[in-house]
Here is the input.
Amino acid sequence: MTEILGVPVAVLSGQLMLGVINGAFYALLSLGLAVIFGLLKIINFAHGAMYMLGAMCTVLIFDAFGVNYWVALFVAPVIVGCFGILLEYFLLRRIAGQDHIYSLLLTFGIALILQGVLTNIYGVSGLRYSMPEMFRGGMNLGFMFLPYYRAWVIVAALLVCFATWFMIEKTRLGSYLRAGTEDSQLMQGFGINVPLLISLTYGFGVMLAAFAGALAAPIYSVSPVMGSNILIVVFAVVVIGGMGSIAGAVITGLMMGVVEGFTKVFYPEGSAAVIFLVMVVVLLIRPSGLFGKEA
Amino acid sequence: MTITKKLLTSAIASAMFVGAAQAEISDNTVKIGYLADMSGTYRDLAGPNGQTALEMAIADFGGTVNGAKIEVVSADDRNSPDSASSTARRWVENENVDLIAGLVASSVTIAVSNILEENDKLGIVSGSAASSITNEHCTPNHIHYVYDTYPLANGTASAVVKEGGKSWFILTADYAFGHALEGDVTRVVEENGGEVMQAVRHPFPTSDFSSFILQAQSSGADVVALANAGADTTNAITTAGEFGLTQSGQTLAALLLFLTDVHALGAQSAQGIQLTTGWYWNMNDETRAWSDRFMEKTGVRPTMVHAGIYSSTMQYLNAVKATGSDAAQTVRKQMMDTPINDMFAKNGFIREDGRMVHDMYLAQVKTPEESKSEWDLYDIVRTIPGDEAYRPLSESKCKLVTQN
Here is the structure.
């Protein structure tokens, strides 16, 4: 069998596949962050908490009402998205236009409160959520066993990423949005309700995080602390991709998933740090990120 | 030179000791600091409910000892040795804390035990796993009460090897506890004629284990052993299930599983897993009675750590009462001289290295059909006698043992 650095190619292909799957989660999460930062200039430190809320919500509405996976995949992000809109309306709006650090601190505070309150109620051991019946099992690809659910994760995440990019870059609504954040007074003058647009955008960004959470519920341990670790990684992904760049966030998310996956094979001890290493290198060479516009 | 120095210090120490040994409780208060993970990945197995167990012990004891009041302070160690050290230092140096209880992450315990030794205060470790805590990191100032990695390896690993699992792939949490467990497991596997093919160290904590599970599958080992804890273990078990690890003929062995982990996984996903535990709530009438009281207060069944906190606090208070002192060495000696017979342990005893030796249990997770209630999760398969379970003193690297 052919080998690269002592590792069989078959094993590497499997790791490549898993890297893409994890990258799909990073892409979804960093996309939401990039939308919120790119359009609203809010550094949303509550993003990990929103991811957690999406997953928790999926489990809780299943336990309480028996809501099945497919419905939850739609309903959980909507519920969390509405919560995001309320946050924007009652809190974030009050500090609009201030230095970025204020939105960072405010959202970080919200994240800690959410995490703390839910930890007190549900503990940290994780809530049970079983895999939907139709996704049980998997297929043998020759070089690896691919669970059906992981395949679905790639499809779902990439579809949502593409749809988001298309909506923001190619549709009329997207152009209003971009214009509204560029010069809100002018847009108000044209009769566009800019504050509403901003609330909806924040809500949408949050929905993307919650969608990632709902998608993660069957495969990761669902607990109030699940968002805190992933948040920092996702921020690093956004920084590498270039703050605010939508396509950059998606492509970088996938790339970093793969980089992390390979690190887990060649030097597992370093897999938690490798993304930050890439971040340092990218910032030194291209401070605006791989896909960012030069400032 | 060193001998004179040692003599001198011990002379001074004993002179001071005579002063302190007037059998007094300092500032007429026994102050217990409960230091544990209150919000992170080990919260449920110790955490706020551990403090409840501690307070239950104080209430059952009567709330005072020889007329001195018993006070409790608590703090979150955030699983960080730095944060825990600064709390411990403040407690023992400025706030007259006599005993630090709880102590979960092994890295935290090792850091705190050094501070206890410097200040000659006592610590009772109920949550940590690393066997190095009473081996190379032993001090005359702490007691390791509930379990450690040595019996975990002895119980689970030897059972699995004897069932035919000869080649092992170990997935290790990359910090003190994981390393200790990996070492102890490797020893047991090799002693029983097995072989460790590969050990992979993953960052702590890790949420996605798919890459490691795939490596484990392609290694072709008979047994995939998880030398990690808490959410890392439950995540790894869930992922192993998803990737069909056991269907392809490999055995999954979780070396450290707490009741709260198994409860989170549920009998459906955890059924059949073998594990070693220091205590289980549903063993006999005594354990059940205490667990019912615990559940009334907390809403959940206690883990071995919760029960150990209750038992060790009781032992500590009894020793303070018997000696009329809260000086660390006086109390520790009294605790070592008193066998432990309560709902937690029968004929348990504390060795000179600080290890509390008691029977351990090899358990198997019940199937959903066997499990009669939400927390009815274990079958006790075998009792491992304390002497057989723990590292014998003859193999000890502890400075308190080798000096003699």
Notes: The mean pLDDT of chain A is 91. Chain A has one domain: 3-285. The CA atoms of residues 24 and 155 of chain A lie 9 Å apart.
